[in-house]
Amino acid sequence: xxxxxxxxxxxxxxxxxxxxxxxxxxxxxxxxxxxxxxxxxxxxxxxxxxxxxxxxxxxxxxxxxxxxxxxxxxxxxxxxxxxxxxxxxxxxxxxxxxxxxxxxxxxxxxxxxxxxxxxxxxxxxxx
Length: 127
Known about the structure:
Order of helices and strands: HHHHHH
Shape: globular
Keywords: Membrane, Plasmid, Transmembrane, Transmembrane helix
Protein name: Integral membrane protein (PIN domain superfamily)
Number of strands: 0
Transmembrane segments: 6-23, 43-63, 69-92, 104-125
Largest sheet: none
Radius of gyration: 15 Å
Number of domains: 1
């Protein structure tokens, strides 16, 4: 049950966010630059991400072979990335600023997110 729920939520989020980045990339990157210019906002977002990461890992820490492992990996990535942003705030902000300036990297990231999202949704709805 948790696997299906999380795969659905993560899948749709990845699809919507990747499409946003692909079709409204300049505007989205500008908003991200604004966020990265506000240290306290970046910190608050990291705290919210930490809460989501903890919830995801606690509800889905299944190390089994097969597609549910993708949900586990995403859950742990969310948790660990939030911890990294909290403990190494300046490094994370600098890296994110560098990443956002690189249009090709953002486009590649968007395509990877889209593929992961479609993979998860395929396994939820069509498998």
